[in-house]
Structure formats: C-alpha cells, structure tokens
Amino acid sequence: MSAILALLLLTLSPATAQEVAQSPGGACAAQYEAGDYPAAAACYRALEAAGHHNGHLHYNEGNAWYRAGDTGRAVLAYRRAQLHLPRDGDVQANLNAARRGAKDDLEPPDARGAVARTLLAPYDALSQAELLLLGSLAAALLFVLLAIRVRRELPGGGGPLVLLGLLAAGALFGWSVRSYELTTSPVAVVVGAEVTLRSGRDLQSVDLVRLHAGAEALVVEEGDQWVQVALSSGQRGWLPASELGLVRP
Fold it and tell me: H-helix or E-strand containing 190?
C-alpha cells in the first residue's frame, strides 16, 4: 500500500507544480518572492479587475501591498479577503497589523460590542456564499424529509424537521441581510495618502477632518464622484470616491 501511495504522489507532483506555475496568480507570486512587492500588488490587482475574486488572492494582494508600504490598499485587500475567509486567523492577524500602521485612531465602523459579537458569532463565522449554501442544503433536506414523511406516513420526526426549518430560515435570512448590507452600506477604506472629509460633495464645502490611508468608514450614500460616509466616532461627511475602496465581494 505504501509503495502504491508513493507512486501516486510521484505521479501527481509534477502536474501539481505545473498547475501552480500556470495558475492566474503564479506570475504575481513569483514577483512577490523576488521582492518586487509593488509589481506583485499591481499584478494581483489586475487579476482582481479581470474578474478573479477569492479569499486567497485578496490575502496575497494584501500581503503585497503591506510589504510595499501601502497601508490603505493592504487594509482594503485583507477586508475583502475576510468576505471569503471569515474564519482565517492569518487574514485577521495581518489585517490587525495593517490597521496598526494607519495614522487615524478609529475603530472599524462595523465592529460589534461584546454581547453582539457573542450572539452573532455563528453568523459572522460564515461567508455570504456559505450562508446561501447552508440555507439551500437545509431547505432541500427539509423538503425531502417532508416528502418521505407524507408518502410513507412516518411517525415522529417533528424535531429534526423543526431544526432544519429553523436552520434554513436563519441561514437564508442571514444571507439576505449580508447581501443587503454589502450592496447598500459597505465599508469604505481610504486608499489615498490623505483626504479631507467635507460637509458637502464639493471642494468649497467645510473641511471637517483629515483622514489617512487605512481609515475605515461606513458608506451612507454612494455617488459617482462623492461618497457620504459615517465614521465610528459618529461624524459624517463626504469623501471623493476616487480616494476610497469599497469592501464588496
């Protein structure tokens, strides 16, 4: 058995290495390993613009931006990685490290209190795609069990049916809430070196506060050129859309 396993490993290893070399991020990884972090970050960003979106790509992009000294884009990439990998400890640790490099002492606008963090831990631990998958599977299994029970008149089984119903409803409701939040009020990250929060959507409006790369805010209203945001301090104002990156899938 061990000889057969070793033969299989030897057979698969060249193909695996070839797949890695030819993967969409292979060239980006090579630039990162060579120490050309700005080029690697730009490479990952180009992949993102081409439609490649997954947690590991965003995580690698965040590492490249962080190494290149771009705090704002590093925070943005790590936060996007979290949408796909909410339970990944490395993503959270690197996000925390990038946040420590930001100049503004602001809490994340979507940070939960201790009680809410405890109660919503199962919800926060699942990605948007996982919520949809869990809800769909639970609903499908519920309908199958209901069909079996009706046709065969099986006694009992009420408990599992109730649990499956609650699981399906909860997961699908959580998916709809998450989808609505990411669409209407996503988190915005400042990617410009320095930007002024203004009272209105023009350069003649009153200056409120200066924000720096890595500052996070919650989007209140989104426009083509200006975005109204709310800081964790409660202050609201407008920022140029060109200086922001939005945390969306």
Answer: strand 187-190
Tokens 């979106």 map to which residue? 53
- Which of 35, 37, 84 lies closest to 64, judged by CA? 37
> pTM score, two decimals?
0.85
Eight-class DSSP state of 23 = S
24 is written with which tokens? 């969409």
- DSSP-derived letter for residue 112 is P
By CB atoms closer than 10 A (0-12, 13-18, 19+), residue 192 is middle
Dump pLDDT digits (tens) for 14-70.
433 343 334 567 899 999 999 999 999 999 999 988 888 899 999 999 999 999 999
* Distance of alpha carbon 32 from alpha carbon 173, whole angstroms: 40
Quick: pLDDT tens for 179-226: 999 999 999 999 999 999 999 999 999 999 999 999 999 999 998 899
